[in-house]
Amino acid sequence: MIAEQIAKDLLSIKAVTLSPNEPFTWASGLKSPIYCDNRVTMSYPKVRREIAQGLADKIKITFPDVEVIAGTATAGIPHAAWVAEILDLPMVYIRSKAKDHGRGNQIEGRITDKQKMVVIEDLISTGGSVLEAVAAAKREGADVLGVAAIFTYELSKGKTNFENAELPLITLTNYSTLIESALTEKYIDQNQLELLKKWRQNPENWLN
Fold first, then answer.
1. pTM, whole model, 2 decimals?
2. Residue 103 confidence (pLDDT)
3. Is 148 in contact with 52 (CB distance < 8 Å)?
4. Neighbour count for residue 110 (Cβ, 10 Å)
């Protein structure tokens, strides 16, 4: 299955690091037993090809009417380019904020009014940044069909945010698959697996 394969890939190239006993501190201040940097995948041709093909296949099935692929700046851009190439579709990228010079674009590239778009992100935590990108794309006239990402932490806040936005999300792999793969591949033991499960259920209070 693609979910298990991508999970193993992310672990093997250390795009994902699990440290339940010495948690990381995210920029938000949240203490987390996992750190995911999918930018690392760019440096591994076999892994990035599997990701691009996996996303392209899922997009074709879930969003068959897609007309343009958009990447979020900056992590989603390379994956969007590779997916657009496989699907033979136009590609654009969405800035985190509009330029303060020139025409003030937030989308780079060209879209037409009501063009059916799928937005690609590298990973989903709460979904806040990609949903802001979606809102920007809609302001500029796109018809956003959904979001496709490599990985999701499966946090309840992220799920709620996508439900509230009434926007479909598809991912290649997820937190549950990743931690089970980590156990199978002996990156963690059973006690650490339980800690990792506890974090997902209660990210703010899992250490207590």
1. 0.94
2. 59
3. no
4. 9
